[in-house]
Amino acid sequence: MKRFNLICSIITIFVFLFAINTSCLSQTNNGIFDNATNIGPPHLKGEAEFNPENGEYLLKGAGANMWGAHDKFFFLSKEIKGDFILRSRAAFLGEGIHEHRKIGIMARNSFDDDAAHINVTVHGDGLASLQFRKTKG
Q1: Are 37 and 75 in contact (CB under 8 A)?
Q2: Cα 66 to Cα 100: distance, rounded to the nearest angstrom
Q3: I need a labelling partner for 2 at 20 to 30 A (CA). Which of 21, 75, 105, 133 fits?
C-alpha cells in the first residue's frame, strides 16, 4: 500500500511539473525564431503566436516606425552569421489605421532602437520599400 501511494505521488508531481513546463513552452514558443523583442518603446508591446500545425506566425504590435533616428516596433529575430537568404510571405490582417504600418524582413546588428539595419517591407497602403540605416544613430 505504501509503495502504491508513493508511486501515485511521484506521478502526480511529474504530471504537475510537466504541465507547468508545457504551459511555459507554449507561451514562449516562437517557432524558428530566437527572440520576440520590442525595439524602442513602442506604443503597445508586441506579441507573437506560432502555429506549429500550419507553420504560420501571428504578430501583433503598435510602434511608431522603422526609420529616422529611433525605431519603435515589435521584432521576431534569429541570429544568423555568414551569408544568408531571407524569404517571407506576409499579409496584414484587417484594415489598420495607418498607411505606414509595415510588415517585412530586416537584418540589424543589435536590438538598440538606433541600430544599423536594412529592411524590406510592405506598407499598409501597398507601398513596397527598401530602407536602411548605415550606421548606429
Answers
A1: yes
A2: 10
A3: 21
